[in-house]
Design the sequence.
């Protein structure tokens, strides 16, 4: 029997929003979801028009997430999962309500605005039957997963260095007033105290710890808001100390002309080094120390890794990109939810960033902010 | 009112096939289609299982395309378009039947096995109310379209040279017997007389003429089957003479180790040159003669081209790839079909490869074959 | 005892010339030569000023090459070798005179203006005690040599394809009247009938045959002079058939905006492919068919090749370039000449392009010209 | 009248040494020097053999630098300049003696082992008639100079960020006992307290301040010796605060597998960003914020910069590398010394790193060491 599609609702993502559309494409690519309900906007007009555009039945387009969760709970064909794609400050209440209603959650990052909220959500999640996934989408790239496996297998030897960076250019100058994306991201009330740090720095941090499976122990950071009048950081410099003696640096910026979406990681062990960059996601450099031959490993359906290849749809040389990596994460989540329908646990649960990743991310953010406020004092990641 | 999705049927593309799945993803990405019927395989078991997997209702899974066209014609919610994703030799009969039934056609390339068939189909298409689209998917890439516009605007000056190549490695050795993709592609009965030439050479040719809007007038070619026992060419060398005095070269190969899906084009005018490669589709090199500054133009939602930007879903630095370019073509077709529902003509019709492109492609193939058999004599592209 | 420097004279290369200065740097880099005499210009004033600038004693600055050879023959410390860096049409008479005088020759390419001259020079060389070297400098690059060794060892398997190209942009438009380099290169009287073909096409051809050690058997070519009024070709398209069943293409152009000095070669065997580009000379791509891992091989003093590493002066990561490759050729010649002082034969003689390379190059040029004039008929390389 | 060559002596650089040979090639490339004397080794046998190999007259091969300076002072044709290419700990006494003898100094970096020595040398230099040049060779690259000019002209706007890195791999493991280069570089007695920091970190620092002409005000650093038993740092992480509000990061390492000689700098202003990497020295990325077109600027003899183009010998597309950049520095010094012969001051004096650069470098080293020892406390660069 074919597995029925996951019945999905969405909060946020109405007309004019950005990331909601990305989630919807991600959900569609492998055809594992059906978007059947939505509370797409706090503005009724926008919500209605958006739902119609998305072929959502008018009686399942809701004015609020509370309404949606209540109404859908009463339907036999009610939603099984909700995608939360609102600005950051709404992640917490929506996720909380969903988990309490037993609805699986697919939440955009960062998990919440504050560590306190994240910890509370962790509590709620631990006592909920629902699954909580945090869309750190870059971990969906096949070669990111392959890199993690190579490191776990020991191909790099003992990890010593992790150099991660994520520069962008789009906030180099004060944005126009009508730039909706820029507006909420630079407003501490909606995005939290961490600006660039929360928006993209957490992706860089998550990538580093996802691939190496090391824990960040402490950080020495220097945050800056270069653009006049900006209330949150637009550049983050940080030195990192990981578990097992590894060290690293993290740089993230939104004021770096020439940089588009420059997430890049280099990891060095005592046997080999690797490098992967999000803008060229179909290749990974891997250089064993011996032999002086740098090797490019391509995204390839023959890679000796099931986890990497399950996210590959087309043969090598046919580039897959950001949307496919995002889709892979959605498909993994679908597999998990489908297994849970039968009371089973799918092995991909271990690969999907969840509430713990969210909490760690908030701890990272807090430690960076605290260190920067303390003249870059080394600051541990604790509660 | 929201435009209803296009009701789509599919011929071919059952379990074990490759390109059918690509078409389905392409159709889903922008959510403009609903796959409601299929004649997915000539084997009833495979057809049934494939339909179920694709959530096609069992009564709309057909044993043959003839059955499907007949039955769907009788339904009010019958298919409006059919995607033909069979091996090459079936393109002609299926497309013919669809056009005659007034069903819009989305046909994988090459259009047919022979020029004769293509010409007949051209006749049929000209007297059919249905729209015929040929999925030369590489023309869906935003920067390919942007390049075409730059050339049309005159930014390159008078075009002199077109160097196009498309090397792959996957047939370097005789493939295993169970490699289904390789089997039909190297069998003249199913793929036509042209091997590598028909499979990927036609893509290279189409890209060159699509971007420059020049006509190929004659060709001097040298075909080879390097692998012992291979019945069709696996390497094509050709020199090209275009209209308006432009010249070029075309190389395509399936025996080039290190090459994955290396479609690449370089176009030189008397004012500037450009270069685009399918494996790095989000960038295009454009070098004006003056100034000695090479420029990379990125896929970017701010490009000064409506046609290019309509195929861009996410901001620069977030790579889109092969599936998105394919999806863009599907979405363009959806726009055309939606306009036709209302008796209107959508401007994107001019950008979608159709039956004329198919005929020209077959003329190209024939001329190349004829030239190669005549010791590379310059051979004109005529009927 | 330290080997004394080779006493070198130069013909051509006075003020305003280009390639003479390159030869002099090449001779100096490894300090194996001493430039002691010159007939640097046909204009006495220029000859005198140039000699002074180069610290050549005034009594060894000559008004003509004939004077130089005569006078130097009478000196105990007379020149042992002469570098010929004149425009093409003077190569023959100067080389002839030098060989007849027993003076070793280091001649810029192409060897002569015509095949007849080249054959005559071959005769003269064969009966002369002097050594004749032709500065096909690109064969001095360590990785070009390494590639040749890999092919000889069989790492690529049986060679099937050789794709070589050499595009430039500098003659895209008719040059200014005062561009001395452009003037003689586009004047058939001084450069020979072959324009771009002779200037850089011969380098491409030499590289292909040097690396693979295959012979070019026949060629089908299409030459064009795109710039109005130009008397020699500025673009060459050619298809190639080599010994042992290999095939290839050659493209060379001087009207390709965006291309600087784009000599690039790709060689494919049935086991692996390689790629090397002159503009990134410190790396070579080598991709074995198995494993789907492309490898970059760096210029590296640990390469398993004596011939490759003898041309490496500094550790990997410290780029060497065009001048160093040229110097390596000069140093090889110095080793040969030093061995000959003692009546010995140095093993590097086999690696230095000589009169036979020159003759083959002229045969190539002639065949290309003849083929192009015969509507691209396949034309064999014969006398 | 032609300018006579500069008469050069050398201290260090005997057989088995590395950087001495580089200096000699650099001095020869543009033919502005004559190596006439040497104290090439502290071992008499090696000194003698080395001198002979270099064609230095036996009576000008000295057993010590003191002897050389004394004897050469007494000759009319005595050396005008001395190249100091010893291990670091000998830089100070040799430079001191030379300056006191009025001999111009070309000293390899770092200037001395300690800041105290550097300050003393600064005193001596200020009261000496001789010129002191420090071979921060990377500042000889044409595009590094061009970048400095662009920044000075304001093309990047106000500088905000400087991200500089210099990773290598060659000390990833404990080196063999017979690796002479590794031995002295990891021995605090000969190289100073700073390991990787002094060897290559100072190059990175110098590049950053050379290009931007900003002063480093303070540093927060974390040094590590990853290889067991290593007595000096092999990895440096540092955050930087420059004058005028600019910030940056510096990473340098000798334990990064896959990195060869990875000096790379990225500089971001509020109008544009640039990037230059030593391993691809013939290109520089320059991206103005407006327009989303990244541009590559090539090393090109038409650059609108006299200082950049004076270091270019061959046309674009013909790569120049490390040795040419080093040679450019030598040639600049020759111009300065030739001008001084006539009592003139050459404008290139301003571009040649000298004793002040050396002192600043030592201050940088000291501040980094001090910060690292103080748990990465921000540490100012003071005496």
Sequence:
């Amino acid at each position: 029997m074919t597995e029925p599609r996951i019945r999905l609702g969405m909060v946020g993502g109405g007309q004019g929003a950005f990331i909601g559309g990305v989630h919807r494409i991600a959900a569609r690519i492998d055809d594992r979801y059906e978007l059947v309900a939505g509370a797409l906007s706090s503005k009724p007009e926008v919500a209605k028009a958006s739902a119609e555009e998305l072929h959502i039945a008018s009686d399942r387009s809701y004015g609020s997430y509370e309404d949606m969760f209540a109404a859908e709970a009463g339907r036999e064909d009610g939603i099984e999962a909700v995608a939360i794609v609102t600005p950051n400050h709404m992640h917490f209440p929506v996720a909380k309500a969903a988990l309490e209603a037993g609805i699986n959650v697919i939440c955009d990052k960062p998990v919440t605005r504050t560590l306190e909220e994240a910890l509370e959500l962790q509590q709620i999640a631990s006592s909920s039957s629902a699954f909580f996934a945090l869309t750190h989408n870059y971990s969906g790239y096949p070669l990111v997963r392959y890199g993690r496996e190579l490191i776990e297998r020991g191909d790099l030897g003992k990890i010593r260095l992790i150099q991660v960076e994520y520069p962008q250019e789009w906030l180099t100058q004060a944005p126009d007033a009508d730039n909706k994306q820029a507006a909420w991201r630079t407003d501490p009330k909606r995005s939290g105290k961490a600006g660039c740090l929360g928006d993209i720095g957490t992706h860089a941090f998550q990538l580093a710890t996802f691939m190496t499976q090391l824990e960040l122990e402490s950080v020495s950071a220097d945050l800056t808001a270069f653009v006049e009048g900006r209330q949150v950081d637009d550049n983050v410099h940080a030195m990192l100390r990981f578990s097992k003696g590894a060290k690293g640096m993290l740089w993230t910026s939104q004021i770096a002309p020439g940089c588009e979406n420059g997430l890049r990681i280099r990891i060095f062990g005592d046997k080999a080094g690797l490098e992967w960059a999000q803008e060229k996601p179909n290749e990974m450099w891997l250089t064993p120390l011996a032999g002086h031959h740098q090797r490019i490993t391509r995204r390839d359906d023959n890679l000796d890794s099931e986890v990497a290849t399950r996210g590959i749809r087309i043969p090598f040389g046919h580039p897959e990109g950001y949307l496919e990596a995002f889709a892979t994460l959605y498909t993994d989540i679908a597999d998990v939810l489908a297994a849970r329908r039968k009371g089973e646990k799918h092995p991909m649960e271990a690969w999907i960033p969840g509430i713990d990743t969210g909490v760690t991310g908030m701890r990272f953010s807090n430690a960076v902010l605290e260190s920067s406020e303390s003249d870059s004092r080394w600051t541990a990641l604790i509660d």
User: Anything to note?
Assistant: DSSP finds twelve helices and 14 strands in chain A. Chain A has a mean pLDDT of 94. The radius of gyration of chain A is 21 Å.
